[in-house]
Amino acid sequence: MRPLDRIDLTILDILQRQARISNVELAKQVNLSASPCLDRVKRLEAEGYIKRYGAVLNAQMLDINMSAFIQVTLDRTTADVFNLFKAEVVKVKEVAECHMVAGGFDYLLKLRITNMHNYRDVLGMIVELPGVSQTHTYVVIEQVKEDLGLPVLSD
Q: Within 10 A of 2 (CB to CB), how many other CB atoms are there?
């Protein structure tokens, strides 16, 4: 793999914001002709810089009106307990993100839920996951900033 240059970084930045942009328009924005631009995009995909393409859905229009974060503490911090927990938490569809963290607890989960009743059901599933000894929940009141992608360009 060769290092990324300014054009590669610009391509990545544009694609993470506008995945449906045509190759011709992308090429125009990075000052390349269409063929070399497409070659760069294919290389960035092949090398793993681009993991996937997708659409950002409107959660409220789909009645997924709530988010919550749950701190999870495990009863033991051993490899087998970590592996059992990870294998099961990925099956809970309302868990949008799961991060192993350093500090006073072991995992931080981000939930996307429809309402408090749905939250209660999901919490019931999470406390039954292998190794879970304690949870603390923080319900989101207002989302101040949304994930807008990676900061690949320096201004």
A: 7
Q: Could you tell me where the DSSP H helices lie in 5-115?
A: 6-17, 23-29, 34-46, 79-89
For 143, counting Cβ atoms within 10 Å of its Cβ (0-12 exposed, 13-18 middle, 19+ buried), the class is exposed
- pLDDT by residue (tens digit) across 10-56? 999 999 999 999 999 999 999 999 999 999 999 999 999 999 999 99
Q: Which residues contact 97 (CB under 8 A, 6 or more apart)?
A: 109, 110
Tell me, what DSSP letter sits at residue 4? P
Residue 10 phi, psi (nearest 5): -65, -40
Residue 46 CA neighbour count, 13 Å, CB half:
8
- The tens digit of pLDDT for each residue in 107-146 reads 999 999 999 999 999 999 999 999 999 999 999 999 999 9
For residues 80 and 130, the answer to whether their CB atoms sit within 8 Å is no
C-alpha 26, offset from chain centre? 24
Residues sharing a CB contact under 8 Å with residue 4, sequence separation 6 or more, in sequence order: 12, 49
